[in-house]
């Protein structure tokens, strides 16, 4: 993508590490950056798009971030082995949390082991290798076991924190936040690039009718609509990622385990019961209400499984806790995303903002 952008006649590519935004009287005028050889430069522009990723050092100037770190991914590359279902991604429902496998070449499979919490066993002193061999390896498919152990023994183990952060922008003249710099979700569903590319298309369409970007105040007021218009796609994928991670993680709660089993059986029904959730995952159905309906359909399906053929007081109690637990999973995520922006974006004033007149 970088090469493609650099090939365009109206693009000038400069590479360096941005150290700060240049601000004058509350308006962002450009950036200060440092090149590989240590030289510092300043670049000025009427609109600065900040997209410096999940570890952004600029987001605090343009938003009110509340970053949560639910877990860490431990990454390995498995070589010369076959997945149970070729050319498909695999989610292994393990204890304490999911394990991902997906092909990245004809001979390589990436494995991502989710480890709950903000700290992982140390790689340097061998604790991580011991954890992977004793806790993780027994839970993976047999056809991947040997390749997994070989990858662990090679020692090429990488770790990365998984971050979740609802979008909380503070509209600032001269600047716009984009990507993981201002909105993240658990990467279990791989929705990050879907959200990012959707945001880029939306921003492109908003900027297309503009011929003058130098009226910073008018441009900022107009681009507030970006933060509202992106909500249906972004919040649907964000909410689904957070909810599925909690459902797929192991729990001592019987109701939570029933919810997890119901989720798989619901998908196995096929037809609309699988097409609906998959279209939500892929961003093809950016309707939050569909997400809520499917999520509670899974919960109700789980309750039905419990009560048939003969309900008992214990099963009724477990079913009630299943519904309560489902609500406790999804509603806090929706609240963090913003109920009004998520379900009723057209009621937000910025939704109807027209382009500033040249």
TrEMBL record:
<dbReference type="InterPro" id="IPR040125">
    <property type="entry name" value="Squalene_monox"/>
</dbReference>
<keyword id="KW-0274">FAD</keyword>
<dbReference type="InterPro" id="IPR036188">
    <property type="entry name" value="FAD/NAD-bd_sf"/>
</dbReference>
<feature type="domain" description="Squalene epoxidase">
    <location>
        <begin position="45"/>
        <end position="317"/>
    </location>
</feature>
<comment type="function">
    <text>Catalyzes the stereospecific oxidation of squalene to (S)-2,3-epoxysqualene, and is considered to be a rate-limiting enzyme in steroid biosynthesis.</text>
</comment>
<dbReference type="GO" id="GO:0004506">
    <property type="term" value="F:squalene monooxygenase activity"/>
</dbReference>
<keyword id="KW-0285">Flavoprotein</keyword>
<dbReference type="InterPro" id="IPR013698">
    <property type="entry name" value="Squalene_epoxidase"/>
</dbReference>
<dbReference type="GO" id="GO:0016020">
    <property type="term" value="C:membrane"/>
</dbReference>
<dbReference type="GO" id="GO:0005783">
    <property type="term" value="C:endoplasmic reticulum"/>
</dbReference>
<dbReference type="GO" id="GO:0016126">
    <property type="term" value="P:sterol biosynthetic process"/>
</dbReference>
<comment type="pathway">
    <text>Terpene metabolism; lanosterol biosynthesis; lanosterol from farnesyl diphosphate: step 2/3.</text>
</comment>
<dbReference type="Pfam" id="PF08491">
    <property type="entry name" value="SE"/>
</dbReference>
<keyword id="KW-0560">Oxidoreductase</keyword>
<protein>
    <recommendedName>
        <fullName>Squalene monooxygenase</fullName>
        <ecNumber>1.14.14.17</ecNumber>
    </recommendedName>
</protein>
<dbReference type="GO" id="GO:0050660">
    <property type="term" value="F:flavin adenine dinucleotide binding"/>
</dbReference>
<keyword id="KW-0472">Membrane</keyword>
<comment type="similarity">
    <text>Belongs to the squalene monooxygenase family.</text>
</comment>
